[in-house]
Amino acid sequence: MTDRAELAAFLRTRRESLQPEDVGLPRGRRRRTGGLRREEVAVLCDMSVDYYSRLEQPRGPHPSAQMLAAIARGLRLSLEERDHVFQLAGHAQPHRRPRRDHISPGMLRILDRLEDTPAQVVNHLGETLKQTRLAVALLGDETAFTGLARSLHHRWFTDPAARSLRPADDHDEQSRLLVADLHGVHARHADDPRVTELVEALHRASPEFTALWREHPVLGPYCASKRYLNPQVGTVELHCQTLVDPDQSQRLLVHTATPGTTSHSRLQLLSVVGDSLRPTPAEPN
């Protein structure tokens, strides 16, 4: 059963405890409220202001598990706080294993400060959980996929569109790197049925994957630069740095270009033109 009053009070207190700089937003000069405005939270949660406002009043609809997960991310809730929100809304608490889709507040705070950089949080299955606006402009909205297609590993071996982002000369190396990564994930999470499902699905769908899997490739300590094909600015060569959150089995991937290079200039151009390509948040049902 939903406790609308308690849910509204909890959301309001968490909103009021956050400052704009905590979530990568400008403070502005005319700010009367001590915390975030409702419209700012709505943007962070990818929902309408009216929908979020009604939850706080409380007179809103019964939020789905997907909407609650979005609110938990938008308000930078801890796992314990997220579980509490689910309980107040009358939903079963999400399983912490094997589905590790909740991003830790600390990881989100780092991501918030990388808005002018292509960066994204990816879980152990290769599923993108959150991207900066420049990462969306560079790679597309990777959070929009569903089912097995959420995993880059699965898309790479089953969807030709996934390979269109990389030069053809780089495909063999990328295939080997992805298989090596998934091999490591499979070894570390042998008890995770989602990992097993992903590996088995790829064996059924891709002879290339199966052939590489049998070779047992292993990732090396050095991550070479990668080239991306972007329809707006052309080829961009980027270096990727990784921050790992062991508790969540998640990685923060940060892509940078060497200053003074053509790729650096193109990335700056994409930062400008990319805003015109951003999708409009969908209206919740």
UniProtKB/TrEMBL annotation:
Keywords: DNA-binding. Pfam families: HTH_31, MLTR_LBD. InterPro entries: Cro/C1-type_HTH (IPR001387), Lambda_DNA-bd_dom_sf (IPR010982), MLTR_LBD (IPR041413). It comes from the Bacteria. The keyword DNA-binding applies. The keyword Cell inner membrane does not apply. Residues 35-82 form the HTH cro/C1-type domain. GO terms for molecular function: DNA binding. This is DNA-binding protein. It comes from Streptomyces fructofermentans. The lineage of its organism: Bacteria, Bacillati, Actinomycetota, Actinomycetes, Kitasatosporales.
